[in-house]
Automatic annotation (TrEMBL):
Transmembrane segments: 26-45
Name under which the protein is recorded: Polysaccharide biosynthesis domain-containing protein
Transcription regulation keyword on record: no
Membrane topology of the entry: Single-pass membrane protein
Subcellular location as annotated: Golgi apparatus membrane
Pfam families: IRX15_IRX15L_GXM
Keyword Transmembrane helix: yes
Organism: Hibiscus sabdariffa (roselle)
Amino acid sequence: MKNNNSNTKLILLHPYIQKQGSSSKLWLLAFISFFTIAFLLTLVYTRESITGKTSSITAVVGGGGVAVNAPLPTTVVNTLLHYASKSNDSYHMPYSEMKPISDVLRKCSSPCNFLVFGLTPETLLWKSLNHNGRTVFIEENRYYAAYYEELHPEIDVFDVQYTTKMSETKELIASAKEQIHNECRPVQNLLFSECKLGINDLPNHVYEVDWDVILIDGPRGDGPESPGRMQPIFTAGVLARSKKGNNLKTHIFVHDYYRDVEQISGNEFLCKENMVERTDMLAHFMVEKMEENSFQYCRNNNNSSSSTTKASVS
């Protein structure tokens, strides 16, 4: 008789196997949770630490510590002036001419707005001496301006196309005086002016800034066909008289003041009554803000260079 009994195989799933898989997942979840919480705590602590340090710095500055906007130390200024005056460039300013400009920049309230006509051997010096302020340079050569800005990206340079010639100085000044109630007013926004002596093609914001110090050391003025500095001198005078803020005075320096064009234009538009100091090469004026309905450049009519314009213009 054939045995019909078959072997029955029974497979048991031990509950420990499932518990072991669940346990591994729980451990992994706990591990991830731990590091997530640790990361969040570290982030919170770091932010509180940074905030605390910032508050400490603010407290130190407010409590008479080192001020963030403090002017350059005197030793640093003197060192910069010393080495700049020893430049091998034959056209650099001597110490006696750089020092008065440096002194005004040091006394200028921070942030100081400094406008410079001309890229010169002193360009980097002016930028450094006004390290907490705004320094803008105006250059006649657009290619040199682009090259200089690429070489020194921290320098703000704008190029301008001058439309004047030194040989036309007398006619240009006469035209400005004829238009003193119209296009060549002492107080106006030159961006909208058609005055032949006004520079009106600079970026808009240049006309909106209340400039504290203006230095005129460009463009070229070495021959009858050179643009001369009549336009920068006239423009500087208008910018100074048209200020909107509470700082009523603007320091204006004119370099190469031994030349006829600089003296004639300076007398007419910056005025002898505003002259603070003059050396052979540098003149320092302090021009005050005027009311919008003012129609004279100088309060004292004797400052006018109507007689001086008869002098020869080289």
